[in-house]
Amino acid sequence: MRFAVLGAGATGGYLGACLANAGQDVTLIARGRNLEAMREHGVRVLEPDGTELVARPACTDRLEAAGEADVTFVTLKAHGLTAVAPTLGASLRPETALVFAQNGVPWWFFLGDDGRRLESVDPGGVIAASIPASHVVGCVVYPATSLEEPGVVRHVEGNRFSLAELDGARSERVVAISSAMAAAGLRAPVQSRMREEIWLKLIGNATLNPVSALTRAGLAAMVGDPPTRELLRTLMLEVEAVGKALGIEPGIGVDKRLDGAGRVGDHRTSMLQDVETGRPLEVEALVGSVVELAGQVGVAVPSLEVVYRLTRQLDRALRGS
User: Fold this and answer.
1) What is the largest CA-CA distance in the chain?
2) Cβ-Cβ contacts under 8 Å for 48 (sequence gap 6 or more)
3) Is CATH 1.10.1040.10 correct for 195-319?
4) pTM for the whole thing?
């Protein structure tokens, strides 16, 4: 199989390096200084045990390379997908699989279900109109990574990327993708109930990310501070309530979720990393989507609404608007 990674930053760089190191045909799609560094020096992954993984996959800024691959992992930030969706969709071959490895409520979450659409993650329905559902493979990303500098990824912990077809089928293509990832040393279980797994991760993403961005604190510092932990617990219970209104049971209590986050250490969430580098924040996919869904299903999320408004304002300030 030919693989591509669209948006080869921290997560995409780590994933692409692992696949390339295992001998897979991989093309990383990136831009700017990160692209230049990867072209010149390859991708360096700094592992938790102090070792380094160095891979030299092909690198390009051609978006069309995504459609030329058999499997393309889309690791763009969610807010970056709308602008490229029409070109991406037009480039696809009938057999190209798009594995959406993104945080938050994904744009495809309700495809083939009740027709529900979220303006917060697919403004104007542009993405759904551009990318046929037949190309979509869902993915939940667990590795904690950060981009230390262009072309250099720090891998903090985790190597799991859960995969699923929209209908939960164990298709030939999703099994083949899982097998290739497993051969690269990654955990890639094929799931039949992706919604539950997405929501369980969202309980952390929709709460830990914005609070870390607002406080500039890492995971252990937030969870270890009693007042902040209590705020996070309140927020998590609100996100959990929205999921339950959609028929999604979390499968794990919020206190265990908080304890697990604390054990990761002082890792900076992806949103905090974006604050520190002045990049746009994934406010809508991570928080706005839950607030929008809460309104649709009639669940009150007063604390989450406050955090959402503050984080949106922070994002505007970072954008200079």
Assistant:
1) 53
2) 155, 156, 157
3) yes
4) 0.92
Tracing tokens 């798009």 back to the chain, one arrives at 98
Angle between helices 302-319 and 226-245 (to 10 degrees): 110
Nearest to 140 by CA among 88, 180, 79, 196: 196
Whose tokens are 């607002």? That residue is: 214
pLDDT the model gives residue 267: 84
Q: Which residues pair with 45 in a beta bridge?
A: 53, 153
Q: Can you list the alpha helix ranges (DSSP code H) found in the chain?
A: 10-21, 32-41, 65-68, 81-91, 126-130, 172-183, 194-215, 219-224, 226-245, 254-263, 270-277, 283, 289-297, 302-319
The whole-number pLDDT of residue 75 equals 97
57 contact partners, CB below 8 Å, separation of at least 6: 16, 17, 19, 20, 26, 27, 28, 38, 42, 43
Q: Chain-centre distance of CA 245, in angstroms?
A: 23
Q: Which entry of 77, 201, 244, 256 is annotated as an active-site residue? A: 201
Backbone angles phi, psi at 58, to 5 degrees: -65, 145
DSSP string, 237-304: HHHHHHHHHTT---SS-HHHHHHHHHHT-SPPPHHHHHHHHTPPP-HIIIIIHHHHHHHHHT---HHH
pLDDT, residue 82, reads 94
Q: Give the model confidence (pLDDT) of 153-196 as tens digits.
A: 999 999 999 999 999 999 999 999 999 999 999 999 999 888 99
Write down the pLDDT at residue 252.
87
The CATH number given to 2-192 is 3.40.50.720
The sheet that has 136-141: what strands, in order across it?
Answer: 58-60, 25-29, 2-6, 71-74, 97-100, 136-141, 161-165
Would residue 77 show up in a list of annotated catalytic residues for this protein? no
Q: What is the pLDDT of residue 321?
A: 67
Residues of the chain with CATH 1.10.1040.10: 195-319
Q: Could you give the residue range(s) of every CATH 3.40.50.720 domain in the chain?
A: 2-192
Counting as low any pLDDT under 70, the low residues of the chain are: 112-115, 321
